[in-house]
């Protein structure tokens, strides 16, 4: 058996994978590190590769530093490289943040040396555990498989699952593997697909399914493209993300003795919001005060209560917790006031197409009335699929087929231990397979944004250095092959 060529192979080079590599490079000179990503630019992923000028960060610049221990890092970089007047509360274009992440990698390689690091532009298709490490096969068949001592999945959010709309019952792998157009040029399953807004008549109509952040992003992309037509937004509840406003510090009010039920927690938060309002302090301060302890709150709840949260509270939590940059909220409000955006609420019944128009039939919320909407493009903005059983991704399927990975109890991602090691079907945490980022949602709940992931990257890097340096004394990984 060949010896592993790479100590740590990270699959996915968005923020999570890139920052894990950076943290490893800063921490040790003893390990070789490779990042494999479909794209060629570190850190971009879906979020920071957008070219649209109205795609702004939804977190203020002062909270977007790549390193938990250096909160001013992004601000310093942005003032020197983008705009000297940037403030901690400014919301910068996401493309600028992508450039910043590229500069973080360049800086690290300049300081720590390039020889231990490689960026591999390719797609990981499958992997197996071998006695001497993990073997990984890739899409580019001309390249040999890779053997690594440890593999970290930093694959981000998965694309939406196959639609459950009658008339659209097709696999989500259609159209290029990441939720293409399902054989239709009018329905787009994966909102971030490159072709989503292509060849759209400028005065035509678009129907967005869902009214969350993805939908707002599509509206801003249409605005950037000077689209003049009508944008219909159809969602179950009609909830729109709130806007950011300056907040004041609010003392932490949750502790181990706080309620361990969703009902009790909602009551507690409402009381605090009322108390804050009496002092002229906005509800946002109360919500944000919970951010540092959100994983602890989540873990304090029994699974039945976590499930209750997902069923009844999640949409409300999402719109209060994940907010819009004020500039984006203003543009959105103007477009709505001008009648360009039209809201509809209800449950989708079916989809059909007639030549150049897609048709959605829905049951209006609170009534039994069936209504119809027609548009030149229908875009699914309902967010990513978290249920691994429905994810049509060959790498994940390969891990499940071998019993190397297991979904968490709520099917929000992968079952992991405290370090992010994958837990297999026998309940054993792996010593060579790990994950970071959105796949840890079941364990941490909030694990999709920079402030949370940068901490994970630091902690996982520290853990890997310890584990791999210990193992290296013993010659090889001690995990038995399956
Ligand atoms: C539109 C959008 C805007 C956002 N804005 C913000 C914001 O303003 N502030 C904030 O804090 N957070 C924001 N987020 C949250 C965002 O998810 C995180 O900040 C962060 O980008 C997540 O990074 P990631 O690396 O985990 O995932 P991703 O960015 O999705 O990166 C995963 C990478 O893995 C690659 N990949 C997946 N599978 C494979 C495979 N099999 N082989 C090879 N490569 C693979 C993908 O191509 C991708 O490049 C936003 C998210 C989105 C979607």
Q: What can you see in these coordinates?
A:
The chain is of the alpha/beta class and 482 residues long. It has three domains: 6-158 and 386-473, FAD/NAD(P)-binding domain, CATH 3.50.50.60; 187-242 and 324-380, FAD/NAD(P)-binding domain (3-Layer(bba) Sandwich), CATH 3.50.50; 262-321, no CATH class. Helices cover 31% and strands 19% of the residues. It has twelve helices and 15 strands. It has helices at residues 15-27, 73-81, 94-112, 213-224, 262-278, 283-289, 294-300, 303-321, 326-337, 394-401, 441-444, 450-473, and strands at 6-11, 33-37, 117-121, 124-130, 133-138, 146-153, 187-188, 205-209, 230-235, 341-354, 357-364, 370-375, 377-380, 421-423, 429-435. The strands form two sheets. Strands 1, 2, 3, 4, 5, 6, 14 and 15 form an eight-stranded mixed β-sheet that branches. It has a seven-stranded mixed β-sheet with strand order 7-13-8-9-10-11-12. Helix 1 (15-27) runs parallel beside helix 3 (94-112), helix 1 crosses helix 12 (450-473) and helix 5 packs across helix 6 (283-289). The relative contact order is 0.16. The model is unreliable at 171-181 and 473-478 (pLDDT under 50). The structure holds flavin-adenine dinucleotide (FAD). The site of flavin-adenine dinucleotide has 30 residues, from helix 1 and strand 2.
